[in-house]
Predict the structure.
Amino acid sequence: MKKITDKIYAKSPVLLQNVIISTYGYYWKNRRLGVVFKRQLDEFNSRECFTKQEWKSYQTKELRRLLVHSFETVPFYNDKYQKAGFSVQDFQNFELSDISKLPYLEKDELRKFGKTTLLSLTKKKGKYYSSSGSTGTPISVYFSKEFHQIWNAAYEVRVRNWAGVNYKMARGMIGGRRILPDSEVKPPFYRYNAAEKQTYFSAYHLSEKTAPNYVEGLLKNKVEYLVGYAMSIYLLADFILKLSIKSPKLIAVLTSSEKLTLIMRNTIEKVFQCKVFDAYSGVEACGLISENKKGELLFSPDTGIMEVVDSKGKQVNLGESGEVIATGLLNFDQPLIRYRIGDRVKLSDRQNSSMLKVDEIEGRIEDVIVGENGQKMVRFQGLFIDVPFLKSAQIIQKDFDEIQINLFVEENFDKKNEELITKRLFSQLGNMKVGYKYLNEIAKCENGKFKAVISLLNK
């Protein structure tokens, strides 16, 4: 059904596309913003005045509840924890300080068992949502309607409200969804979801030539705040600055997904005449870091438990950087306990809040790829989603018309999969020379992660 709808959408005029998007937006709004969402707003707000001791008591109680539930109803954890020597009685009296004794949940385990034994036998009706798939095989996470609303309440209170905005206001979004089907299209480079007063801008058509149309969309739909990929919003702001276009003054800009540098922050704030609020979570939804009005990055203890560890698995000291080990406290349908999410943060040595303060979210700084029409992008949403036998991938721009894709694959990967990736790449960048290189593993940087996108232009 989705493929049929996608084909109809792709061939429809802009007006009808807006109707289709608004219809989906109405469904999406009801799924995320129902009775549970509204009740949870009060819950998240009421906990903001907790002391450190109250947070510790809260997390201990919620962790015990999660562990008992997982041991009794999630086959994956029942097997894993029994082999590690744990019993249900251990979890009934579990202490926060003992969490490091639990084994990790690896990303490959989530991929392998996420739709089978890693689900609770008592799970509520729900759907799977995937990461962008920009670095190979994507992660799929199970969201029941209830969990979806709880998570959105956390986002509303700790991200939007901290930035001085709310879900009822008109917003702009620059994200990974393909709202324009091809790389060569005419303006407008945005579509409108009337159900939520949301103007969705394409992340795949940003260039000096198209930037004025993006500003037109902001003005036409009276956008009050902007949300989306940090680099995409920065690129738009940079184009606006270079072209000396007058941009509307916004209430706030909310960034995520990529590392927000000081240059990016200053450029965005100058163009849109408002403060930028950075945040970090991910599709796994097992922890939320968000920026308050003081510019502090705080971890919300009621969304999860965040350990920050060194290469030996030992908790780092304040002022040091380490790998994030995440335990989500909200998703009981597919619990993620001591999950190696693959990201790093630097803990602040100035802990003046009851919530854990972070100095820096050490995410990836990806290079910018330039398409045949001059468009710039860092994210390639859906490029590798549902490509069989693909483990991970890396995009390298060798010249303005030449792309190399490094692949780390399983034995049964074949040429048909290459053709699928090439077709998707053409739809985003336009026709280019595409070559493939197969590796035993994609090289990682010093922080233990690999760059998904590399540009060799001007290097």
Remarks:
- Residues 369-455 form a domain with the GMP Synthetase; Chain A, domain 3 fold (CATH 3.30.300.30).
- The chain has two domains: 1-366, 369-455.
- The chain has twelve helices and 20 strands.
